[in-house]
């Protein structure tokens, strides 16, 4: 599917080098050597959203947040809160197009990875944490790092009967029936797999895909018109612990399942998010975040980019 020229021009505006760079490379397939790609990439490090995030970073390489209600602080470890602690900000920087070549990135990533547990986990086997991190570190150029490989192996080795993922906090919480997987955490694993083409044919990835096909991306299996989790039928950006059907639709399309009939209702849902000019609206954004690209209910370049990427990969090659 070719995007409308007016929408493409909007995404390529020079005031947002991260969107411009990712549109040129991921949507239009331009080479890293293309002049416009090199110019956009060079502008990202000093762009306003990147500067805003780094302005809040502790000199030791972490982002700290104090909960006003309890007075408890988070961020110097792996605990997270408020969408402003360390692993969120590293994820946002990876979305913006920063990688390990930036001298501000490497110390923060290295410090965080050194908090990893021996099996590749970070805390409680929350896939909404470790799989989310895995995607960020892969995008930042750390695929070959032994610590990142441990997290990758953890994601591959973690198996559940229904094919999804679940954290230690919820595993086995029912005495008389099995606990279903968490679709939010499963979405984060699915999007992480989408960044690792060498794993697309692995049994674990195929089993996770089957989980989402049974859910028709984001719906309950027993009540097929009802969303499988609160907020999952909304467009969300930046991506945080909450999950959006757009994340799953994008990942499934990247993985080669865009034409699967089980995705039809999710594609129809995506169409309802488009305005008259062909731009896609963001339904929800975290209230606390150092990365605030769009207002709720307004057209979003980020949501539009992900929607167009999903639609582009939907077409058979």
Taking all Cα atoms into account, the compactness measure Rg is 19 Å
Shape: globular
Mean pLDDT over the residues = 95
* Unreliable stretches covering 5 or more consecutive residues: none
Query: Strands of the largest sheet, in order across it?
Result: 1-2
Residue share in helix: 40-55%
Regarding quaternary structure, what we see is single chain
Q: Count of DSSP helices?
A: 13
**SSE pattern, N- to C-terminal:** HHHHEEHHHHHHHHH
What's the β-strand tally?
2
Beta percentage is under 5%
Query: What's the end-to-end separation, in Å?
Result: 12 Å
- Helix and strand content put the structural class at mainly alpha
Quick one: biggest sheet? 2 strands, antiparallel
Q: Would you mind describing this structure in some detail?
A:
The structure is a single chain. The protein is an all-alpha fold and 317 residues long. 43% of the residues lie in helices and 1% in strands. The protein has 13 helices and two strands, in the order H-H-H-H-E-E-H-H-H-H-H-H-H-H-H. The protein has helices at 5-11, 17-27, 35-44, 48-55, 86-96, 105-113, 127-139, 146-157, 183-194, 203-214, 245-254, 264-271, 301-314, and strands at residues 65-66, 73-74. Strands 1-2 form a two-stranded antiparallel ribbon. Strand 1 and strand 2 form a beta hairpin. Helix 2 (17-27) packs parallel to helix 13 (301-314), helix 9 runs parallel beside helix 11 and helix 11 packs parallel to helix 13 (301-314). The longest helix has 14 residues, at 301-314. It starts with a helix and ends with a helix. The relative contact order is 0.11.
């Amino acid at each position: 599917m070719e995007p409308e020229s007016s929408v493409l021009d909007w995404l390529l505006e020079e005031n947002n080098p991260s969107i411009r760079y990712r549109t040129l490379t991921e949507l239009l397939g331009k080479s890293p050597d293309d002049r416009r790609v090199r110019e956009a990439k060079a502008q990202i490090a000093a762009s306003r959203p990147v500067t805003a995030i780094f302005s809040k970073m502790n000199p030791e390489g972490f982002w700290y947040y104090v909960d006003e209600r309890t007075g408890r602080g988070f961020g110097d470890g792996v605990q997270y809160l408020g969408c402003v602690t360390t692993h969120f900000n590293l994820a946002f920087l990876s979305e913006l197009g920063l990688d390990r070549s930036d001298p501000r990135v490497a110390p923060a990533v290295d410090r965080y990875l050194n908090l990893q547990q021996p099996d590749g986990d970070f805390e409680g086997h929350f896939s909404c944490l470790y799989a989310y991190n895995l995607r960020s570190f892969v995008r930042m150029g750390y695929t070959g790092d032994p610590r990142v490989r441990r997290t990758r192996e953890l994601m591959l080795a973690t198996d559940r009967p229904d094919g999804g993922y679940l954290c230690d906090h919820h595993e086995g919480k029912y005495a008389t029936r099995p606990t279903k997987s968490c679709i939010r955490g499963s979405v984060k694993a699915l999007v992480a797999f989408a960044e690792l083409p060498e794993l697309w044919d692995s049994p674990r990835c195929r089993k996770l895909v089957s989980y989402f096909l049974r859910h028709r991306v984001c719906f309950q299996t027993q009540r097929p018109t009802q969303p499988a989790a609160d907020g999952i039928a909304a467009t969300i950006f930046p991506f945080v612990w909450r999950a959006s059907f757009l994340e799953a639709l994008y990942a499934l399309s990247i993985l080669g399942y865009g034409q699967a009939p089980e995705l039809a209702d999710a594609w129809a849902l995506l169409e309802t998010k488009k305005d008259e000019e062909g731009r896609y609206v963001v339904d929800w954004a975290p209230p606390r975040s150092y990365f605030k690209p769009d207002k709720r209910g307004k057209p979003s370049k980020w949501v539009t980019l992900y929607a167009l990427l999903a639609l582009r990969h939907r077409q058979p090659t």
